[in-house]
Fold:
Amino acid sequence: MITPKKVYEFFEGNLKMLGDEFGLLADHQKEQVLYRMEKCKDDCVKFQYCIYCGCDVPGKLYVKRSCNDGARFPDIMNKTDWEKFKEENNIVIKRL
Structure:
């Protein structure tokens, strides 16, 4: 179902994805997108749509708000919170 929220998130995700292609996405945000890709590699990434909300992937992975209420991954965090989250959860991002 198309809703104003989904339209907004479509533009948000795809604009951030475009920014990433031009090197404009902050490292801590890029790491969180990579983390989301890894968490979703066996379904959402494979099927090219989110199994929770039905939105297109990879664009959906760039959206600030998590559509799964934290079941898989949290909302995109600021740099300080992301560093703390990585440390607490033993997350190592191998490439940027």
Remarks:
- Residues 27 and 78 are 11 Å apart (CA to CA).
- Residues 4-21 form the longest helix (18 residues).
- The radius of gyration is 13 Å.
